């Protein structure tokens, strides 16, 4: 008969380590289940219901999907969102990379310049939107003041369907500070000896940039591309604060349309369908970018 001391203890070292790990991730796991997975599952259920946030959800099957097919506004919203993303993200990356290259030069006071360029991107979104609303004021805004000095007549930036999208795109490009900082970190990780060896071999500035800087920076470009695309597809504050989706529906974006359907029209079931459509668009574009990345993203460990 074995004594308690001779038995192998239940709480072995491996199990203690496992329990410690589970205890460490428990706050995150609870947050994920309660604040992310739970709401997503409930939203998936709401897609098949009619719910006005007051009464109990009413099961209607595929009624919301039938409504989606007939919704002309949704197609306009999808076009606005994709166009905004397709123009804003590349322009923002180009501007951020150009500024990062300048701020990577060995100049006096460059840390001050870096801080000055980066700080505007840290302004709260609502405050930024209000600032640009003032800039686009047709009577006394800075935008029309600059156009006037160039001999161009004043534009009604936010009340014209032809200019409201460019206005939002300019504002989106202006917030390049986060991407610029990441580019700057990537530039500082490029080995100096590569540029020195290329210079000895006779490569010029443009050649070194094209054949060394860009390939070595491609993972950073890819990261900023992914983050920028996801952020642009979910743009909400600028159109909400500055235009409310107008004039007409020319600046109505995906998340703003979801908000209007869910919290203004009290059609939460249809808003859930729109949310999942936006999620699938983001997912497909992200997976597509990862698939295409194999063709142009270079990692230092690659053969």
Note the main attributes of this structure.
two-stranded antiparallel sheet; 13 helices; single chain; 69% helix; mainly alpha; 303 residues; 1% strand
The SSE order reads HEEHHHHHHHHHHHH
Q: How many β-strand runs? A: 2
| Radius of gyration from the alpha-carbon trace, in angstroms | 26 Å
Strand order of the largest sheet: 1-2
State the helix count.
13
What fraction of the residues are assigned to beta strands by DSSP?
under 5%
In terms of structural class, how would the helical and strand content be classed? mainly alpha
Using the alpha-carbon principal axes, give the shape.
globular
- The separation of the N and C termini measures 62 Å
Low-confidence stretches: none
Quaternary state of this entry equals single chain
Query: What is the average per-residue confidence, as pLDDT, rounded to a whole number?
Result: 92
Instruction: Specify the biggest β-sheet.
Output: 2 strands, antiparallel
Helix amount, in percent? 55-70%
Fold blueprint:
Blueprint: H1 13-46, E1 49-50, E2 58-59, H2 63-70, H3 72-103, H4 110-118, H5 125-135, H6 142-149, H7 164-174, H8 177-188, H9 192-200, H10 205-233, H11 237-243, H12 254-264, H13 268-296
Helix pairs in contact: 2-13, 3-7, 3-8, 3-10, 5-11, 8-10, 10-13, 12-13
What does this structure look like?
- There is one protein chain.
- With 303 residues, this protein is mostly helical.
- The protein is built from 13 helices and 2 strands; from the N terminus they run H-E-E-H-H-H-H-H-H-H-H-H-H-H-H.
- The protein has helices spanning 13-46, 63-70, 72-103, 110-118, 125-135, 142-149, 164-174, 177-188, 192-200, 205-233, 237-243, 254-264, 268-296, and strands at 49-50, 58-59.
- Strands 1-2 form a two-stranded antiparallel ribbon.
- Strand 1 and strand 2 (58-59) form a beta hairpin.
- The longest helix has 34 residues, at 13-46.
- It is globular.
- The protein starts with 12 loop residues before the first helix and ends in a 7-residue tail after the last helix.
- The model has no long low-confidence stretch (mean pLDDT 92).
């Amino acid at each position: 008969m074995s004594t308690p001391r001779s038995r192998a203890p239940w709480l072995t070292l491996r199990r203690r380590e496992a329990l410690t790990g589970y205890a460490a991730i428990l706050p995150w796991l609870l947050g994920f289940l309660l604040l992310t997975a739970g709401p997503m599952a409930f939203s998936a259920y709401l897609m098949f219901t009619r719910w006005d946030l007051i009464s109990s959800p009413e099961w209607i099957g595929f009624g919301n999907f039938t409504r989606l097919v007939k919704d002309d506004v949704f197609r306009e919203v999808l076009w606005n969102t994709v166009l905004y993303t397709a123009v804003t993200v590349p322009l923002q990356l180009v501007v951020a990379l150009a500024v990062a290259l300048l701020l990577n030069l060995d100049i006096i006071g460059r840390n001050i310049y870096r801080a000055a360029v980066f700080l505007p991107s840290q302004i709260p979104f609502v405050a930024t939107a209000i600032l640009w609303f003032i800039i686009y004021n047709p009577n006394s805004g800075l935008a029309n003041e600059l156009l006037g000095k160039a001999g161009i007549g004043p534009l009604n930036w936010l009340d014209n369907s032809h200019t409201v999208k460019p206005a939002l795109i300019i504002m989106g490009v202006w917030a390049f500070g986060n991407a610029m900082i990441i580019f700057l970190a990537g530039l500082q990780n490029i080995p100096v000896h590569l540029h020195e060896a290329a210079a000895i071999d006779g490569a010029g500035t443009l050649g070194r940039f094209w054949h060394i800087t860009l390939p070595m920076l491609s993972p950073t470009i890819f990261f900023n591309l992914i983050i920028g695309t996801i952020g642009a597809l979910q743009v909400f504050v600028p159109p909400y604060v500055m235009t409310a989706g107008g004039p007409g529906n020319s600046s109505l974006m995906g998340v703003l349309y979801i908000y209007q359907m869910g919290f203004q029209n009290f059609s939460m079931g249809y808003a859930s369908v729109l949310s999942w459509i936006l999620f699938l668009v983001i997912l497909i574009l992200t997976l597509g970018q990862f698939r295409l990345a194999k063709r142009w993203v270079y990692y230092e460990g690659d053969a």
